[in-house]
Amino acid sequence: MSIQALGYLGIGTGKLDDWTNYATNWLGMQAVDRGAGVRAFRMDDRKQRLVIDSSMPEGQRYFGWEVADARALDALAARLEAAGVAVKREPGTLADQRFVSGLISFADPSGNRLEAFHGAQIADEPFRPGRSISGFRTGPLGMGHAVLMVTSIEPALAFYRDLLGFRISDFIRKPITAYFLHANPRHHSVALFEAPHTGMHHLMVELYSFDDVGQGYDIAQGEKDRIVATLGRHPNDLVTSFYMHTPSDILVEYGWGGVEVDDATWQPEEMTSVASFWGHHGLFDAMGPDGAPPMAAPDAIRAPLQVMEGNFHRMSGVCPWWDAMRR
Ligand SMILES: [Fe+2]
To answer: Residue 302: inside a domain, yes or no?
Structure first.
């Protein structure tokens, strides 16, 4: 399999100061100096994950998809070209700007600029979050997930699944059409939603601590109209999150507690609803100008929390109902 994770995201906009304030004081990323016209942000040990570039037109973006090494990058380029996709081997100057060893670029069927790279550079200095957070869950899971709106699902699905090697986690065909695709244990690194127009809906970043999300929710509630969807829990990736506006026309989903997909046992399922277990009010109002049809709540409306070792404390059995459930 070639693509391993969402490595970085670049966003074109002139709103450099707004983004710097937002990415550091709200999201908890670390700003790094990249000279005039560009702001880069760290989320972990890497030199950069999010890049805001004023030399790119507003609304233009690039998605950096990570592969294992130079050989995997060559193999991906060959596979894309064999399928008739134009691939550019980017020069060392661009690799230096991205802080990677090498990259290629190409477009997906919607015209999104995709880059595939290997050899992301690690910073010398430890990550220092912009506000007090425990950290972002990245590593082999990548920086998060991207949700894209596509006008035609079939070519997009064929591209991401058959050419880039993503696997389907789950999907829905009614009342909307969407596919959730994984490249590593994160439930989805990309999701494709059929919509009347193309674009990027949101970037999800995942925090180590549920309290990081709650404190971020407090901060976001301090500004009128910042929150797009209230705190809620998704039925498929089990993430508890809220959605907020960014200085650009994409949203950020700020979440915690995502389920892990194991390819050895995972079976893709057709969902009958993408409605959340609870919360996320306002999410589908923001999906597009037409919104999306109202959804029935899923049949199963609860699931165990997904926690990491060291991030939970097991309670003693003092609840007769729960003890009976366990028996
Ligand atoms: Fe999401």
So the answer is: no
Mean pLDDT of the chain: 93
Distance 104 CA to ligand 1 centre (A): 26
Inside any domain, residue 279:
yes
Return the higher-pLDDT residue of 106 and 312.
106
**CATH classification at residue 256:** 3.10.180.10
Strand order in the sheet with 38-42: 30-33, 38-42, 50-53, 5-12, 61-66, 113-118, 102-107, 88-89
CB within 5 A of ion ligand 1: which residues?
A: 204, 253
Encoded amino acid at 55, one letter: S
Q: Is 324 part of any domain?
A: no
**Residue 17 parent element (H or E):** helix 16-21
Q: pLDDT for 117-141, tens place per residue?
A: 999 999 999 999 999 999 999 999 9
Enter the pTM of the model.
0.94
Domain around 224: 5-124+134-286
- What ranges make up the beta strands (E) of 97-144? 102-107, 113-118
Ligand 1 centre distance from Cα of residue 73 (Å): 27
Domain assignment of residue 90, yes or no:
yes
What total of structural domains would you count in the chain?
A: 1
From ligand 1's centre to the CA of 242, what distance in Å?
9
Using the 8-state DSSP alphabet, how is residue 225 labeled? Answer: T
Q: 213 alpha carbon to ligand 1 midpoint, in Å?
A: 14
